[in-house]
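Following the same procedure, backbone shapes were mapped to integers, as reproduced here:
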Amino acid sequence: MKKLFSLVLAAALCLSLAACGTESKSTAAPESTAPESAAPSAETKEESKKVFKVGICQLVQHDALDAATKGFRDALTEALGDSVEFDEQNGQGESATCSTILTGFVANGYDLIMANATPALQAAVSATTTIPIVGTSVTDYAKALEMDFDAAKGTGINVTGSSDGVPGERYVEVLLELVPDAKKVSILFCSAEANSVLQAEEFTAAMKEAAPDVTCTNFTFADSNDIQMVVTAAIEGCDALYIPTDNQAASNATIIQNVCAAAKIPVIAGEENMCAKCGLATVSISYYDIGFECGKQAVEILQNGKDPGTIPIAYAKSAEKEFNADFAETIGFSVPDGYKKIGE
């Protein structure tokens, strides 16, 4: 009996010890499996930095517009570094292609659009009324936008930019200085470019004011297919040829050079790069500089939150008379003092 009681007591003691062991394990604090909070790494900060996406639509490839685009990119990169990404596309001289490009920019939700040349600007304005637009290589914004506004106060809409405009009287001054006996002057430009139409009108009005006996006649072409025929007709019987800052003419400068040089016709070109290829003289501005000014406007919008409609239209700070020495030699023309040789 004593032996049986001892066995029962031993069993009870074992059960008691087992219970205590279980209770001890269940009350122990569990080890934490949550990761320790850490300060944001340099890489995380870099990923969170705002990167502005900018779409560039350039109407066509030629030296002047290329220089303006480069100036624009340089200004933004100088100010924003790698905080800006560019999507640069070319309209190949077609307004319809520009419209397709701009529709894509809007669909992608870009932060800003740069439109290089009037048809590109017009396509951009048709594509969006909310995304900021900056233009360059546009002569007259009021005419391009079909609006009335004070350029010194801004457009009042989602558009600003820089102008390549030079007063028509400056070109008249050059033409009359170089060809003082001129009686018939032909004006060559693409009828589809609003800038060119405006400049032709300004030139004709300035010539009427300065020399009423000089007759100005417009010769227009629709595209590159008929430019040689139109140039040939334009130089027939004329004393000099004036070409405004026309993108189609600039893209076909070799054709103009070949026709006019052979006929020894003095050509007054709208800008330096065109003059270097097919002209005798020009009143030159820097397209790189106006592109850079446009880029500075874009920085104001992206970095400082400026309303584009309140930013004044920017203009070239200077313009000087230049001449193409090779063209002058080819047509046997002596350029007077006061003209800078292109390339020097």
Q: What stands out?
A: The chain has two domains: 50-164+286-312, 168-284+320-341. DSSP finds 14 helices and 13 strands in the chain.
